[in-house]
Amino acid sequence: MSAPTDGVISAAGQVEQGIMLQAKGQSFEIAELLGDANHPFQSGSYITTYLSPRDYHRVHFPCDARLETSTYVPGTLFSVNAQTSQHIPRLFARNERLVMNLACEHGQIAMVLVGAAIVAAIQPFWQDHPLTARRFESRTMNSVEIAQGQEAGRFLLGSTVILLTEWSTDWAFESGESIQMGDALIQSL
Known about the structure:
The protein is mainly β.
């Protein structure tokens, strides 16, 4: 599995009873992030990448997979920098986001593109314009086959991408480390 974008890892670890860490002292429920209580990530892993305004703003699929569903979850548009993620409870679960559910050879993955202040625009690969619905919208993708590295979408300015796996993962990066799109994310399965 490869890094879907450039940025800095803001958090990485294991999901515990459906809860993931946002920043030191801040956590939230995966069900709230995904807008779906029926998810396979109850005891999986997560890695969160912050994209600053200077980073590459396109997001790519981390593995060969089938894109099964896409869900737009409306929300607020708080800034997502290190300071706000430490002080705003449930920040990523409150901001606007696009959840893409993928089936890869090792199991289920969710890739969550989180909007932010100023951004307010997430553009998935299947549209020629940013999402603007501002209402909950789920779409079955009829198991669209995607290739590792294929463009998934883009932000119109920096933001955050969260990857969730249904299995326990030994991430190759830790909080605070910089990554580039295409870097190997997993040490071992």
